[in-house]
Amino acid sequence: MRVHRSFAFVFSLSLGIGCFFAAPRAGAKLRVVGTLPDFAAIATELGGDRVDAESIILGTEDPHFVDAKPSHVLRVNRADLLICIGLGLESGWLPVLLTQARNGKVQVGAAGYLDASQFVQVKDVPTKADRAMGDVHGGGNPHYYVSPPEMLKVSEAIYQKLVALDPGGRAGYEGRWQAFSKKYQEKMATWKSAVASLAGSKVIEYHKSWIYLLDWLGFISAGALEPKPGIPPSPSHVTELLQQVKGQGVRFVFRENYHADSLSTVFAGKAGAKLLDLPTMVGAEPGIKTLWDKWDRMVQLLTAK
Questions:
Q1: Is 68 within 8 Å of 116 (Cβ atoms)?
Q2: What was the pLDDT predicted at 19?
Q3: Shortest CA distance to 65 belongs to which of 96, 95, 89?
Q4: Are 279 and 255 in contact (CB under 8 A)?
Q5: Which of 263, 219, 270 has the alpha carbon at shortest distance from 242?
Q6: Helices (DSSP H) in the chain: which residue ranges?
Q7: CA-based nearest residue to 252, from 205, 192, 207, 212
Q8: Are 276 and 30 in contact (CB under 8 A)?
Q9: Contacts for 128 with CB less than 8 Å, ≥ 6 apart
């Protein structure tokens, strides 16, 4: 797995971290930390003024590459609830943050730890996973956060967790959840209708990140630009892939907006496909501040003439 780690300063800071932070005061806001900015956005929507939510990953970052920073340790140390992607996506950097933060409330198995992947229908579960296969996750594909229906399930789990941790705010959480889920269902119907005419479109993925969205849209993955997950495209693989998809009518190339490379552009041009840099997370582009903004933008890019 591709990981960068900045442990030395984090470790030295953590030695004294307990001296700087006390337990939350009674009546204080619930502090929610999501590894993913989408989780923080959901908690903000559902929590209202009872919640302070922030994320570790920026929407412009590749979640496979995260440096363990002192600011991350402080966030985890102060959290009442930690929401993670799971399925091994954060395994190269989240465990060290949990260890250095010394916050028993959000350790694995504690009441304040929420693995969002437990609530989704996991896809691409390998029968066998080893390093020779590239960046393959043994528990399944962790990129479910690009799928509207899967993230609706996650949103409900976050709502239930907020109620469990802050039962005094139940009425407010329930009211916001009802409004949120109603709007979500309406938006999903609008998005699906907008792209209905594109069903059956063949797509080349940069990274194998899109299976959840492709299945929901009725699109078909025709291959990936990475020869193996996590291995950057090479000229030889791109040439081979072009030969494989020749005459198949590939319509789109899906690329995360943090994967900028020239080979994707070359491939799309030669394949006659439309290259789309899609926002996978809240904050991936200016103006994408909510889940609605993210999928509104995706639909806009897919349907643009």
A1: no
A2: 40
A3: 89
A4: no
A5: 270
A6: 7-14, 17-20, 37-47, 70-78, 94-101, 148-165, 170-194, 211-217, 235-245, 262-271, 291-303
A7: 205
A8: no
A9: none
Q: What are phi and psi of 171, to 5 degrees?
A: -60, -45
β-sheet bridge partners, residue 33: 54, 82
Residue with tokens 């209202």: 48
Pairing status of strand 30-34 against strand 274-278? unpaired
Contacts for 177-186: CB closer than 8 Å, 24+ residues apart: 177/46, 180/45, 180/46, 180/155, 181/152, 181/155, 181/156, 183/292, 184/148, 184/152, 184/155, 184/291, 185/152
210-269: pLDDT as tens digits: 999 999 999 999 999 999 888 899 999 999 999 999 999 999 999 998 888 899 999 999
Q: How many residues make up the chain in this entry? A: 305
CA nearest to 223, candidates 240, 236, 200: 240
Residue-wise pLDDT for 98-149, tens only, equals: 999 999 999 999 999 999 999 999 998 887 655 555 455 667 999 999 999 9
Tokens standing for residue 104: 């028993």
> What is the spatial distance between Cα 142 and Cα 88, in angstroms, rounded to a whole number?
7
